[in-house]
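Below is how a single chain appears once it has passed through the pipeline. First comes the sequence as given, then the structure the pipeline wrote out for it. We keep one example in the README because the format questions we get most often are answered faster by looking than by reading.
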Amino acid sequence: MSTLSTILDLSVYPIDDPDFRAECRHTLERTGALVLPGFMKSEAVEQVKQEGLEKQHLAYYTAKQHNVYLAESDPAFGEEHARNRKVTSSKGCITDDIIAEESPLRTLYNAQRFREFMSDVLDEEQLYEYADPLSSINLHYASEGQELGWHFDNSSFATTLLIQKPAGGGVFEYVENMRDADRGEMNYEGVERVLNGEVEVKQLSMEPGALVLFRGRNAIHRVSPTEGDITRMLVVLAYNNQANVALSETARLTFYGRLTA
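Resulting structure:
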């Protein structure tokens, strides 16, 4: 069974240290993104990668067209308007119930020290696992040509770990402060320029083992299509700031093809 010290290099990333936590929180507040290279030790990354390769045949694959707001089309606007214009997301996914009990991912996800570190950095009082059996830990696969289209997140933060980098493509791109969701300012003009390729985008550079915290509610972002025959593998560690929250049945059917384990 893995322990936190066998999964993380705690000498490089002292997650219990208040000063280190404050530094991470400041970076996330200032830039909307925090990348911690080599957060997961290479041995643990390799263990997760091997499990991912062995279980890839169990993945549920989806190819979905959606607008960047992840909402139903608004009939007040044309189909090619930035509000309704469609992009494509395609990927495979294995869900929490398929991840082995002895996986480093489960040890990390459930570790109270890690959860307290995350809570502090994200400025959340407490973090909770999902109430449904599928959504807490997901391993995503993007083979050649698969991508994550431009979008805004509905949640206030996302936490990911890169497990396997593709030969080419699979680049995380974003433009920060593209909208103000809380004020209802959707910035259709700016979004249209992004969709037309008229805006210089930022990229997050990451290698296997990198932990990434990203605030995507107001930052439009995507992952470019994978190139080559090496599948991009990325783990999503999903938490809530309230207890007993489940992903909706509609979302579970859409992304996982089922409701329960």
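The longest strand covers residues 87-94.

See the next section for the split statistics.
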